[in-house]
Write a structure and sequence with these properties.
two-stranded antiparallel sheet, 6 helices, single chain, elongated
Length: 128
């Protein structure tokens, strides 16, 4: 069980598993929040001359941050629990996001993710 306040802390879990509805709500909420925060930050950074100077000096950091947050850079996430590779892409994916999703599928297959998961599950002790 992971409390909502820990979802993005990176301290509690590397992976959080939930049903599709909850996962979609968290994903859409997070995307909307990030978009709103970026818009508010842009408004504040262009509000006056001093802020504009600070924004100009910080532009590289803002670009790197935006790239880390951009779903188009990742492309999609794997659907686990199937015997194959399916990458779920964002509904509004463009060509860049779709190419990134294909790259994710390639990494998934080359990384032998399904066999590694099956091996890890097979090595779990039997419950009695």
């Amino acid at each position: 069980n992971v409390e909502g306040s820990y979802l993005f802390s990176g301290k509690v879990a590397d992976v959080i598993v939930c049903d599709g509805f909850v996962g979609n709500v968290v994903l859409k909420y997070t995307e909307g929040l990030a978009s709103s925060m970026m818009a508010m930050l842009k408004t504040e950074l262009t509000a006056d001359f001093k802020s504009k100077i600070g924004a100009a000096l910080s532009m590289g950091a803002f670009r790197r941050f935006k790239k880390k947050m951009d779903y188009k850079e990742v492309g999609g996430a794997p659907l686990l629990g199937i015997n194959g590779c399916v990458i779920k892409a964002h509904g509004s994916s463009d060509a860049k996001a779709f190419a990134s999703a294909i790259r994710q599928a390639e990494l998934f297959v080359k990384g032998n993710v399904n066999p590694k998961i099956a091996e890890a599950i097979a090595s779990l002790p039997d419950e009695e």
